[in-house]
Amino acid sequence: MVAMSTSNRSLNLSAAKAGLSEVVRSVRRTGESVVITVDGEPAARIVPIGTDPRRLTAAEVATVRALMDALARIPRPSEPFDAVGLLAEGRR
């Protein structure tokens, strides 16, 4: 059995390595993440696979939409062009 700190569910690297199967099963069973420490400092986190990322705020969604709209308004060239060649011409 791997002894994990119950207050913040952390485990030093050597203990995590020795009991990795148990640590992963515990994370899956409880849904709680475990922090792996190296020399007493947090180094990695094992999280359940079903953990959803933070949802965007309304302001963040509006910012992304505004950026997408602005990008859509940028005129596109009618034909392919050689950017490297254009830069070389400008340096002559």
- Average per-residue pLDDT, rounded, comes to 88
**Radius of gyration, taken over Cα atoms and rounded to an integer in Å:** 25 Å
Largest sheet features: 3 strands, mixed
Tell me the β content: 15-25%
DSSP summary, beta strand count: 3
Give helix % range: 40-55%
Classification by helices and strands: alpha+beta
What descriptors fit this protein?
92 residues, alpha+beta, 3-stranded mixed sheet, 4 helices
Give your account of this protein's structure.
With 92 residues, the protein is an alpha+beta fold. The chain has a domain at 10-46. The protein has four helices and three strands.
List the helices and strands and how they pair.
Blueprint: E1 10-12, H1 13-18, H2 20-30, E2 34-38, E3 41-46, H3 58-72, H4 83-90
Parallel strand pairs: 1-2
Antiparallel strand pairs: 2-3
